[in-house]
Amino acid sequence: MATFCAGRRAQWSLEGRTALVTGGTKGIGKAIVEELACLGAKVLTCSRTEDGVIACITEWRAKGLEVHGIAVDVTTAEGRQELFSAAEEHFDGALDILVNNVGRSIRKSSTFDFTPEEFETIINTNFSTVLSLTKLFHPLLKAAAAAEGARDKGGSSVVNISSIAGVTAVKTGAAYAASKAAINRLTINWGCEWAKDGIRVNAVAPGATNTPSTESVPRSTELMDRIPMGRWADPHEISGQVAFLCMKGASYITSQVICVDGGWASNGWM
């Protein structure tokens, strides 16, 4: 019985897996880094500011987590290449898990309020960056999936952090919604396209979540009424779903967009 149960428990571990999380020093990204590291993964993360990376690495190492970090801007081709080179060296040419968390929102109620530059910035950060970076890392993900015993661990996994704004109409602005809807479609297509390479691709679409970037958003009665569970999410409630999708327990799940939103996306317009 002990041997049988040990095999089952292995489905819920990330022990020895390698993971890259973009934008991992704040909010949901930071929670994802901590979740994966606590479950045994060796994590590399990045942020645009060196001070932010150093502060988080110091905090995580004090907690006994195996996390490394690099200061790069992944919205640029140069930054993505620098991150790739660092990850390739750090993980010996193979990557089990890629979490595309970097994103940006500019909240405006009307499409006509956006300048062309603002619209382009959001599309570039939330969509084009994910597209380019994931294509760049595909060889490392494929190499990990081809390694001996990789199938026993569920293969390689890409998790894109989307939003319920890409699933239903919410007041985050058309540019943000369009970028996240594009991510959802990309996720679905990649999951089908890359299954032959042993790479699963899914997206997690958070609803209202308590992070530093949402502190200024009013917790209105109107908003709370749209969330059946009646509250905002904690970042670790999002990171738990991300971790699950990277495990062997999720080895038959791909091309899915999973809303973690307290039921909001099923409850209509906010």
Automatic annotation (TrEMBL):
Keywords: Oxidoreductase. InterPro entries: KR_dom (IPR057326), NAD(P)-bd_dom_sf (IPR036291), Sc_DH/Rdtase_CS (IPR020904), SDR_fam (IPR002347), TR (IPR045000). PROSITE patterns: ADH_SHORT. It comes from Ectocarpus siliculosus. PANTHER family: NADP-DEPENDENT MANNITOL DEHYDROGENASE (PTHR42898:SF6), TROPINONE REDUCTASE (PTHR42898). SMART domains: PKS_KR. This is Tropinone reductase, putative. One of its GO terms (molecular function) is oxidoreductase activity. Residues 17-202 form the Ketoreductase domain.
